[in-house]
Amino acid sequence: METKTPFAFKGLAAAFGLGLVLMTAPAFAEEAVETAPATETAEAPAAEAPAAEAVASEAVAVEEAPAAEAAAEAPAEEAPGITPAELKVIADTMWLLIAGMLVFFMNTGFAMLEAGLCRQKNTVNILSKNVIVFGMASLSFWLLGWGFMYGEGNPFIGLADFMLSIPGEAGKVPKEASFFFQLVFAATAATIVSGAVAERIKYPAFFVFSFLLVAFIYPVTGHWTWGGGWLFEMGFGDFAGSTVVHSVGGWAALTGAIILGPRLGKFTANGVRPIPGHNQAMAALGMFILWFGWFGFNPGSQLAADAGPIAHITVTTNMAAAAGLLAATLVSYLMMGKPDLSMAINGALAGLVAITAGCDGVSVAGSVIIGLIGGAIVVVSVTFFDKIKIDDPVGALSVHLVNGIWGTLAVGLFNTEKGLLYGGGIDKLVSQVIGIVSIGAYVVIVSAILWFAIKAVMGLRVSSEEEYEGLDLGEHGMEAYPDFSVRKAPIY
Amino acid sequence: METKTPFAFKGLAAAFGLGLVLMTAPAFAEEAVETAPATETAEAPAAEAPAAEAVASEAVAVEEAPAAEAAAEAPAEEAPGITPAELKVIADTMWLLIAGMLVFFMNTGFAMLEAGLCRQKNTVNILSKNVIVFGMASLSFWLLGWGFMYGEGNPFIGLADFMLSIPGEAGKVPKEASFFFQLVFAATAATIVSGAVAERIKYPAFFVFSFLLVAFIYPVTGHWTWGGGWLFEMGFGDFAGSTVVHSVGGWAALTGAIILGPRLGKFTANGVRPIPGHNQAMAALGMFILWFGWFGFNPGSQLAADAGPIAHITVTTNMAAAAGLLAATLVSYLMMGKPDLSMAINGALAGLVAITAGCDGVSVAGSVIIGLIGGAIVVVSVTFFDKIKIDDPVGALSVHLVNGIWGTLAVGLFNTEKGLLYGGGIDKLVSQVIGIVSIGAYVVIVSAILWFAIKAVMGLRVSSEEEYEGLDLGEHGMEAYPDFSVRKAPIY
Amino acid sequence: METKTPFAFKGLAAAFGLGLVLMTAPAFAEEAVETAPATETAEAPAAEAPAAEAVASEAVAVEEAPAAEAAAEAPAEEAPGITPAELKVIADTMWLLIAGMLVFFMNTGFAMLEAGLCRQKNTVNILSKNVIVFGMASLSFWLLGWGFMYGEGNPFIGLADFMLSIPGEAGKVPKEASFFFQLVFAATAATIVSGAVAERIKYPAFFVFSFLLVAFIYPVTGHWTWGGGWLFEMGFGDFAGSTVVHSVGGWAALTGAIILGPRLGKFTANGVRPIPGHNQAMAALGMFILWFGWFGFNPGSQLAADAGPIAHITVTTNMAAAAGLLAATLVSYLMMGKPDLSMAINGALAGLVAITAGCDGVSVAGSVIIGLIGGAIVVVSVTFFDKIKIDDPVGALSVHLVNGIWGTLAVGLFNTEKGLLYGGGIDKLVSQVIGIVSIGAYVVIVSAILWFAIKAVMGLRVSSEEEYEGLDLGEHGMEAYPDFSVRKAPIY
Amino acid sequence: MKKIEAIIKPFKLDEVKEGLTAIGAHGLTVTEVKGFGRQKGHTELYRGAEYVVDFLPKIKIEVVIADEMVEAAIEKITSAASVGKIGDGKIFVIPVEEVVRIRTGERGQEAI
Amino acid sequence: MKKIEAIIKPFKLDEVKEGLTAIGAHGLTVTEVKGFGRQKGHTELYRGAEYVVDFLPKIKIEVVIADEMVEAAIEKITSAASVGKIGDGKIFVIPVEEVVRIRTGERGQEAI
Amino acid sequence: MKKIEAIIKPFKLDEVKEGLTAIGAHGLTVTEVKGFGRQKGHTELYRGAEYVVDFLPKIKIEVVIADEMVEAAIEKITSAASVGKIGDGKIFVIPVEEVVRIRTGERGQEAI
Ligand SMILES: Nc1ncnc2c1ncn2[C@@H]1O[C@H](COP(=O)(O)OP(=O)(O)O)[C@@H](O)[C@H]1O
Ligand SMILES: Nc1ncnc2c1ncn2[C@@H]1O[C@H](COP(=O)(O)OP(=O)(O)O)[C@@H](O)[C@H]1O
Ligand SMILES: Nc1ncnc2c1ncn2[C@@H]1O[C@H](COP(=O)(O)OP(=O)(O)O)[C@@H](O)[C@H]1O
């Protein structure tokens, strides 16, 4: 099993490791000086409260003895001084952090979904990709992505606050809470790519692409929209990221899937040969975890614990998912004569992606309709990509790209204030189209350049021998289930 | 594998799909008009605050740019005006939503538990049922269930607020938060049925029954109790639903299991032949997820973030589960000579169901005793149902029905204010018995009618050939683990 | 498969069951008298508010009708009277409970990780251990552990508040919330042992050891540190338990692994023979769940919803995990030529353990460096333990013990106030070393005594025949995956 | 001595085993196999596309017996495994030249 | 009648099956096996240590055919399964004394 | 040429393989099987009920060798696989009429 990449990649790995140390070193050094104020800032909301001394002395106590006693003693002294404004900051921070944790958990969902929908022989590889992509994204977004996305800059890119170098403002939700929430979003975009290029991409190639996606591609379009850039100014609206997160991941995935070409044996002279995933239970587990995590994704995007909006968003999110699930089940039932679990799973996810852009501003009935349409779209779309011979092992394109587009358009139709169907005129819809197209064009172009560059430097696709034997052995020298008697190629 | 149902069901599916669109259409149309006020209501708590303008302008900003900047700017302006009362609403809403999300996650637990405790050849079918049942329940509860349960009406049924048509009140926990929390409870009742009828019920039959359970059966008894109906007036107490949720699901499951009859080969001339579940790891995963989700189920049922009660409920819930787990392990150890993992799993769930009714009003020691007894009961009960030849593949009857009854009785014994053992007299216990019996009778009768109706119209049970081959192929044309060499019938 | 233990253990089990009933009986009796005040205490924060009557009457309403209506009515009346101080208590309680739930969920992660990294033939056994250990720990910590750890006593041990017998103080975070949070920590320490002694320890032996660990070993060192004992006085700092939880578990695990000896076939004349885990997907699932749960472990250890600190801790926790994951991947890549998923998984966990002690007081860059080093350490450490022939099937020693030590030392180096590298001098580092050594010595000695006592009384290790056949059959008479064709011994 | 190999439907295993023990076979070995034959496979679905699965799960039973028991064994297997539907399976009789019991080293008839 | 046992590389199964049906074999039985031979195994990794896996996944095809078809079958299998690399596999020809179709009780040639 | 089929206890595979390579067998094929024999099965538990599992996991080794190596192979397998307990397994010797190496088309002895 000799391959040439290891050497190339070993160098890369070493360089990367070194780079990381070098890059963190200055930050570390700086912080060595600045640290005291920096941590003060982090605790500012409390520190500025009237009872500052009590709090300060408690801060020490907490650091030293974060135990029941501390909890039992401290609040009493601290409490009298706390203001409603500070409490709102606390509520907002809790909401944002908890939501961010749920979004983090979506990585688990993606890992299970993608591993379940691929073949047993590629399981270690897919899991490895899903595991590393979050680690990679965390570092990459901290080092570069956050600064490009939310730093001060121009309408096209942010250019400050790399590695969170600028202290946050006092009396507000701590910047680190926002950073964490944005970080888990960035990682989601990268994970989407993983599924579409599965079962044939070289591990190092994916590793490098993910880094660049999170460091650069995603933050730039993120800056245009959520970072206050030109699309934001123009009136483009994407509440929680149907386009900003899902389609961006989807476009990059599409480009990758096309450049890589289909898996061996998928498209034969006799037509499409389905390649069933090896574990539907794992796929269903993944779907449930993703749905659960989406309750962080959408309601968390309110970025504050505002009772009305977060309740509304939770309901629209859930109803669209349920409607997508039902629609995909029924449509596949009508088309194929049997209810297809893999479609039902994709249908629920389609509903979730579709409601993401408009979850805050559509009615509950609107969310049901958006979800129903999303669920129907996903069935047609999967078949469509098969027909045009773009091979997407897990349906990532149909779920994230196509429904990301649908969801973004749906804002222009169903938003109860500005939607076309609610008498809001065509303006919103036009802005939405401009946003979709410009972001799509940008991501496709930049991704294509990167994919080709990676192909030239280190190769993109594994050898066909390795593809037959499975990437688990080829890329990782491991088996996912060594105790079970397994076959490398399914017997049909 | 020709069956007759597909055609019948295709029609049904089409009708259902159409119905859904028709039913949502008017709501949609209405909302097109009403929407502005409706969303205002949703944001009322904030909108009525002194700083209304700031908030309003922020609402727009948030919709357009839910990013770090918005988070960084907004709270500062908004904060000065917020009142403690509003903050309490925020805390309550957060608690309710987070709890509801955890209860949603219980669906994952049920899916894993049930799939793990059934055979490999029926895995896709069980997962499909667990997936669709939540989608179905969401729609069904929104369309009908919520109105029957909580709408204004008479002591026997609610008759208003279908599709959330009545706006919520300002200054309170948003109605949508309550709706979400109640919705996930309704889905739980339906999921319980899934396990008991597993490995032999036709998919479409289950689909239809679930819809009706959530649309009608569950909401009616729910109205009697939590909806302020006659049982509530009478003093029946079931804090988080040992009876209202678990027994209701359990009675419907019992009726279904009896009408369906046992799985082929379960009861032979030589006695009971255990049919081991195909994946104990999946079952254990399911149990853990359910336990985790129960921290939403019980503490969330406080419906408010009241510090003392939610802490107390969290502890009693956990202790009862732990005690149930230990008791079932030890009892099965003593009875069989070895500790039985499948019993330990059921024991923990038994403890959880048993504490559900009384988690708020029993002492910690009381919760331990309730759990210990629940864990012991489940072992005896599983054997009992085997003896009377009612086949319940996952133990749903022993866990949810029997322990639901035990838990509801336990309120009358262990409630520290009104329990018999605490000198509270016999009154509470009598009310509990009346509640258990009346709800049981109602659910058994209505379910039986529905099961028989479904049987007549579309058939209930798959053919014995399909049962041998597995419902995955018969109902879904899919395999759960196509890459593994599997046997359809276990070799003993 | 006759073994002698069943009888011994049956007796033990019976004795234990009886003991439990006897022990809970008095508490129960007492509470029968004291109950009313006890529950009042639990609701104290609200009860003392001006609107006490309204609240009291509502408390009844809530108990009887915890439904939408109650939620809709109640807050309005209650709200006017609530104070910011009470709201802070509510926020703190919510944070503590939610964090505790996440930590509870880590048990799921441990179960999946350990089962995935062991062989198929021992799956039921490992799951049984992971399931029972939490049940056991809950009871044990309530009966004894909490009192030894946090009760009034001397600098070496607490000696009061067993079974939560002392009422909590009003106006503070309810004691039951603290108890729950501390309980899930105690269970974590016990679970760590499970992995290192896997695939060869008798189930009853593990059962007894776990009970004693949580009842006595862990609480004593916990008292020294978090309970305000002598190490706390001396200035030892371990914010969330790198040493107090992870190393304590790790030292007990080390002692057990040495006394048990390696698994048959692990160390042969030809060197180390790797024994691959049977399900890498399950292991990856476990890692993700653990990472998710750690967002309760570390940020929850703030014990209060202080916006700045919890945001900061969430970020440092995440960055260290990401860095550990990357470092372990890259180091294993460089060493072995391929990226090793099982190492990546351990690397992420290593980063998490390493940041646990210092997550509150190091900078983000500091957390990255701590994580990078932790990830590198774990790779070297796994190889090291193999070299000295200590067999640790899941890498628990390298993750929890070695990185627990590293993380505790790192506080002395990277703490931005007192760390050596930040000009804080050597004092902190010295305290840390004293803490590590004294806790290590204590745990090793007491664990060794207990392991040997258990060995003498009931035997520690299964027969080699049982080890070949698998503990699932030997200890439990069950198979984890009975439907799959499996081999008991992997074919290499 | 002969080895009888029978390919049967999986759910018939128990009956065949009992049939064979009834005529005095003391041991047999079972393998999970996939069969292709006159019995048509079935169509499966996956994400909106159909495909035909030709190979069906079967059980192969191998039992080595004395020559004189061959007819009885064929008889028992045929009656126990037959459902009367295509796909019931086949029996093959193969010569065996030697049998050894590993534990004792016994050979031939006694070793069976 | 003969039983042909062919040990082949797993991904060649479809081609071999088609080759055999082309020459008129109506049934065959497939088993997943592990092979050890001249083809070297590979090295696997696990948590920082390497080990050699000697046994490689192979597919065993068993097909019982009339004597006169043996050469044709060998020919077909050889051409369909050959990649030209070590590890392509082996064909073994074994005598079969009797064949019975369970469903009908037919024997010999008709039963194949 | 003969095919030796040995049914052994799974954990003896490595030793048997080494025994066979030692006497010059260059290839062998392994199948996971379930065995029923004099060795009694065991009782398993599931949710409060017991049941007997008759079939135990075994490994089947198939090795085709030249006639003259048969005795040596039997000898090696017997000594390597024997634990001296019931259930150690069986060896069956079956005639093989032809062997073909797929890669080269070689036949007979050279093809083994
Ligand atoms: N010639 C053959 N060689 C090997 N196995 C065969 C042969 N013919 C049939 N089989 C096996 O027997 C099974 C049943 O055969 P099939 O033709 O489907 O039905 P029937 O036994 O009723 O004729 C097949 O699935 C296959 O495993
Ligand atoms: N003597 C033998 N007996 C049984 N099986 C054999 C024998 N020789 C080879 N095999 C099987 O054939 C497969 C291929 O053999 P190998 O020696 O690797 O390559 P080649 O077929 O190219 O000579 C082996 O993996 C094994 O399953
Ligand atoms: N007559 C037989 N035909 C086929 N396989 C047999 C036969 N007898 C035994 N076996 C196989 O050999 C294994 C061991 O046989 P068993 O009777 O249990 O012990 P022993 O080999 O010590 O006599 C069985 O599990 C079975 O797989």
Can you give a write-up of this model?
The complex is a heterohexamer, with 3 copies of chain A (492 residues) and 3 copies of chain D (112 residues). Chain A has 492 residues and is mostly helical. Chain A has helices at 5-42, 44-47, 52-64, 68-78, 84-117, 123-150, 175-196, 203-225, 230-234, 242-260, 280-300, 307-336, 341-356, 364-387, 396-414, 427-458, 464-469, 471-476; strands at 267-268, 271-272. The longest helix of chain A has 38 residues, at 5-42. Chain A is globular and about 65 Å long. The two termini of chain A are 27 Å apart. Chain D has 2 helices and 7 strands. The longest helix of chain D has 12 residues, at 70-81. At the A-B interface, helix 5, helix 7, helix 11, helix 12 and helix 13 of A face helix 1, helix 2, helix 3, helix 4 and helix 5 of B. Strand 2 (28-36) of chain D pairs antiparallel with strand 2 of chain F, so a sheet runs across the interface. One adenosine-5'-diphosphate (ADP) sits between chains F (7, 35-39, 56, 58, 86-90) and D (26-29, 62-64, 101-103, 112).
